[in-house]
Amino acid sequence: MINLPGRTTTSLNGLWEVIIDPFDAGKGSWIALYQDRKPESDSDFVEYGFDGGPRLHVPGDFNSQMPELAYYEGTLWYKRQFEYTPSDKRLFVHFGAINYRASIYLNGEFLGEHEGGFTPFQIELTDRVIKGENSLIVRANNERIRDGIPGLGFDWFNYGGITRDVDLVETPATYIKDYKIQLKRGDLGTIAGWVQLDGANLRQTIRLSIPEAGIDKTFRTDSKGRAEINLPAELALWSPENPKLYDVQIASATDSTREKIGFRTIEVEGKEILLNGQPIFLRGINIHEEIPQRKGRAFSEADAQMLLGWAKELNSNFVRLSHYPHNEHMVRLADELGLLVWSEVPVYQHIDFASPVIQRKMDLMIREMISRDKNRSSVIIWSAANETYPSPERNAAIARLSQLVRSLDSTRLVAQASNTFEYHDDRTEITDAAFEHFDLVAINQYFGWYRPWPEQPGVMKWVSDFDKPLIISEFGGEALLGSTAEPKHAAHSWSEEYHEDIHIQQVKMFDSMPELRGVVPWILVDFRSPTRMHPVHQQGWNRKGLLSDRGLKKKAWYIMRDYYDRVQKDWEAREHTP
Ligand code: GCU
User: Fold this and answer.
1) Is 344 in the pocket of ligand 1 (CB under 6 A)?
2) Which residue's alpha carbon is at the smallest distance from atom 12 of ligand 1?
């Protein structure tokens, strides 16, 4: 996958003409809408047309842009024209993401398709583009499907369309297709990675330079255009306290690219999570990729600044980007802001693991997620699943996924989030055997909301047979901002007081868990979900946010922020205690 930052690109963002096609009729040969035909004579009969039709912003989900599309799940056709003069260069079109299935046409010709709403893909146009005006047509369909990832049911809004940036990218005939430049696992003094060329001239010398670190080295590619990188390096390490990024330049005889990269190691050792060899505690927050104020998918740098700005304000050092890879602005800004990132594929709850095509789709999403963000120092955890239910098919499938992740990237941690555990009186036992395949134990628990507190929070014991770090990857409850329903402190009063109480009790429990290495409240801000239908308290929103849908702080916000301030001090003191 081309790394855009170091490339000359032409953005195709802006207004695109669209046709709404609820019956998905346009792709059939009878209408063949992708041909974008114009009547050639008075008697010629064409029953569709983009010209003069509605136009939508790209990037942007279509649901929040037209009232008639508010809850739309179906096909929408997009058209964008661009001028081009072919040369000896290659041309690609790069999509940040299209939810959920996409078919791509150029000048009436089918070029390719993609399934998966949250990862990038690109298509080469070199041999198809013509001199002058070209017509790019995209069929986007966000219908939920049984063997989809996610499947038919999920607790977030199914925003559809071309939801992320679209770019034309020109490259030399033989170009630097991809590279990974990171520290070797567990080695603070060695850069390990590779550079992959694509094109006819595959045997070349690659020059890697990091001027600020005094690094300027060359490597040879093999017959397949791949150069293995391995060199000693003295680097300032990236961390939340010091999010140091270096300007990394890669050049070959025919091409060059560059980007900002941070260098750090992340490992587990027994029950500890080690960042640059030092134990850390993850002060986390879950985030959906949504801007509540505009009831739409987040996609821009400004959106990322708002969401991650809130996370910093909470004094988080860790964000779980749930439950799918968020746009690239999020992870690049996390690099700059010093926020550790959990990135996940939407293998979520009810997945049809028995379906033969599912494995292929999950593998592709994992590959695309890792390919895009493998050079992000902020990303420390790849997550293969959330709350999938133990079964032989499921266990086998996610075991395979964890192996796939390890084979693609040995420098990061692999995880899943699970809500499979049992509790008897004051003992909570972690019973999901699948954790054997992962580097840490991440538990979603909703004591005080979906489950009553079995015992006084402060005396609860978490029992795990896994000699692995334990984090609480989700917890919380719901409250509409300002709701003070009586009896305030009763479960399900939906009151802010009860919501605050849940967090007070959770913190009490956390304080009694010496082996805990991270907590991640569900969730930063209220978010839309069609499954939340309480007429007063929800109105189509999941109200578990620490912030309201206007970004206003609920009482529970202060509980978590104060807890994080305290935990941060405790851990800093720990670091300095011999
Ligand atoms: C689950 C799930 C979330 C969901 C949350 C909730 O644990 O992982 O996606 O939104 O609980 O019920 O609010």
Assistant:
1) no
2) 155
Which segments of 188-305 are extended strands (E)?
190-198, 205-210, 215-220, 226-232, 246-251, 256-261, 266-269, 272-275, 278-279, 282-287, 290-291, 296-297
Residue type, 563: Y
Choose among 550, 8, 577: nearest CA to 295: 550
Bridge partners (DSSP) of residue 123 are 93
Q: What is the pTM of this model?
A: 0.97
Q: How far apart are CA 396 and CA 353, in angstroms?
A: 9
383 C-beta closer than 6 A to ligand 1:
no
CB of residue 286 inside a 6 A radius of ligand 1: no
% of the chain at pLDDT higher than 70:
98
> Torsion angle of alpha carbons 133, 77, 321, 154, nearest 10°?
-170
Q: What CA–CA distance (Å, rounded) separates 97 from 94?
A: 9
Q: Which is nearest to 395 in space by CA: 443, 439, 351, 433? A: 433
Classified as helix, coil or strand, 541 is: strand
The pair of structure tokens assigned to 159 is 């925003």
Question: Which atom of ligand 1 is nearest the CA belonging to 386?
Answer: 8
pLDDT at position 234: 97
Q: Residues with Cβ < 8 Å from 576, sequence gap 6 or more?
A: none
- With a 6 Å cutoff on the Cβ, whether 538 touches ligand 1 is no
On the 0-12 / 13-18 / 19+ scale of CB atoms within 10 A, 434 is buried
Say if CB 455 and CB 424 are below 8 A apart: no
Encoding tokens for residue 120? Answer: 């990038």
Give the integer Cα–Cα distance in Å for 562 and 314. Answer: 9
Question: Which of 327, 385, 336 shows the shortest CA–CA distance to 358?
Answer: 385
User: What are the pLDDT digits (tens) for 276-304?
Assistant: 999 999 999 999 999 999 999 999 999 99
- Helix-, strand-, coil-residue percentages of the chain, each rounded to 5: 20, 35, 45
The residue written with tokens 């628990």 in the block is 445
**pLDDT tens by residue, 387-426:** 999 999 999 999 999 999 999 999 999 999 999 999 877 7
Contact between residue 440 and residue 415 where contact means Cβ atoms under 8 Å apart: yes
Q: Before 5, cis peptide (omega within 30)? A: no
What is the chain's Cα-based Rg? 25
CA 25 to CA 48: how far, in whole Å? 11
CB 264 within 8 A of CB 276: yes
- 478 close to ligand 1 (CB < 6 Angstrom): no
Residue 26 is encoded by which pair of tokens? 């346009």
Tokens describing residue 162: 């071309």
